[in-house]
Amino acid sequence: MASLMRSPSPHPALVFAVLLVAIFLLHAPLLQLPYFWDEAGYYVPAARDIFLTGSLIPHTTVSNAHPPLVLAWIALWWKVVGFAPLVTRSAMLVVAAFSLLGLFRLAERAANAEVAIASTLCAALYPVFFAQSSLAHVDLAAAGLIFWGLCAYLEDRHVMVAIWFSLAALAKETAILAPFALAGWELLGLIAPKRGVLRALWTEQESGPRLARRLAPLVLPILPLALWYVYHYTRTGYVFGNPEFFRYNVAATLNPLRFLLALALRVWQVVGYLHLWVLTVGMLLAMYLLPLEDSGMERRRIAIPVQMIFLVVVAAYVTTMALIGGAVLARYMLPAVPLVIIVAVSTLRRRLRYWPAAVAAVAVAFIAAWFWNPPYGFSPEDNLAYRDYIVLHEDGERFLEARYPMVHALTAWPASDELARPWLGYITRPVQVVRIEDFSLDEVLSAADFRSHFDVALVFSTKYEPPRPFLDRGNGWLARTWGDLKRRFFGYHRDLPPQAAARILGGRIVFSEERKGQWIAVIEMEKYEVLDAKVALFGRTGF
Question: Domain count of the chain?
Answer without folding.
Answer: 2
